[in-house]
Design a protein that fits this description.
The complex is a heterodimer of chains A (117) and B (155). Chain A has 117 residues and is α/β, with parallel strands linked by helices. Helices cover 36% and strands 17% of the residues of chain A. With 155 residues, chain B is an alpha+beta fold. The chains are: A alpha/beta (117), B alpha+beta (155).
Chain lengths: 117, 155
């Protein structure tokens, strides 16, 4: 699924750096607010879905080699977080939808769990 | 700041191609992750497989956050050898009274602030061990903790 399609699916009002991943197709998601869980279990190349907008979320996405970051529940990352994500080539999306609603819609659209085996 | 940090032990044999040190300050949440990112950039200059870099970066990030959450200051030293990369992270801090407990998933003494940052769930040390091919920890209460871990390069 393209990031632009995900934006539409989740009524994302804001996104940054979509041009960094033109044509990037997302197949899997990993959703967590606990960054240690992302580091331990996320599959590289998955979309990181999180309600944690701290600078550590962007570091985690970089270290765990995620494809992009989707912040849920209206969370807006501060500028240093956006700068870090951009520096690492990571697009950032924001949705007003809750974590539950977000994951439900992504799952229904055919995305799978991005869990490292 | 002039106090000497705990020293790493004697070097294991092996040709060291490159080494570099970074300082991590305890409590510095706003910069937590920068050292792991810097080490990752350094490793990319060597012909190291991306999956190996990923595993070591995960270990470095968890270890860096541990210092920020629990210690006063630490020095992280990276050594690149022909067949592996290894890290020694020596901190000055409170130390760990029971390493067996600290290695158990879910055991944590984290504060709410740490948990708000997405860490402090008791997964740090187990995560480091899980991602590394070598792992050792020693700690003295009231003095500090030294971690040694590393990854082997695939042949």
């Amino acid at each position: 699924m393209l990031l632009r399609e995900i934006m539409e699916l989740l009524s994302c009002e804001t996104a940054w750096g979509l041009e960094l991943a033109e044509g990037l197709s997302i197949a899997a998601c990993f959703a967590a607010d606990l960054m240690s869980d992302v580091l331990a279990f996320a599959e590289p190349g998955a979309l990181l879905v999180t309600g944690l907008a701290s600078i550590q979320s962007a570091h985690t996405a970089d270290v765990a080699e995620m494809a992009a970051i989707l912040y849920v529940a209206g969370k807006r990352p501060a500028q240093p977080v956006l700068d870090l994500a951009r520096g690492n080539g990571l697009p950032v999306l924001c949705t007003p939808l809750s974590m539950f609603e977000t994951c439900g819609r992504l799952h229904r659209a055919g995305l799978r769990a991005g869990v490292r085996t | 700041m002039s106090e000497e940090l705990p020293r790493a032990g004697a070097e294991a044999p092996g040709e060291i191609l490159y080494s570099e040190r970074w300082t991590i300050r305890g409590g510095d949440f706003d910069h937590g992750g920068e050292v792991a990112a810097a080490v990752k950039s350094t490793l990319r200059q060597f012909a190291v497989a991306p999956e190996v870099i990923r595993r070591l970066s995960i270990a470095n990030f968890e270890a860096e956050m541990n210092v920020i959450m629990y210690a006063e200051e630490a020095v992280l030293e990276l050594q690149v050898l022909p067949d592996r990369a290894r890290v020694t992270l020596a901190d000055r801090g409170q130390g760990i009274p029971d390493i067996g407990l600290a290695m158990q998933e879910g055991w944590s003494t984290a504060t709410p602030e740490m948990r708000q940052r997405g860490f402090g769930a008791g997964l740090g040390l187990p995560n480091i061990r899980k991602n590394c091919d070598e792992f050792a920890i020693e700690s003295t209460v009231g003095v500090g903790t030294t971690l040694r871990y590393g990854v082997r390069f695939p042949l």
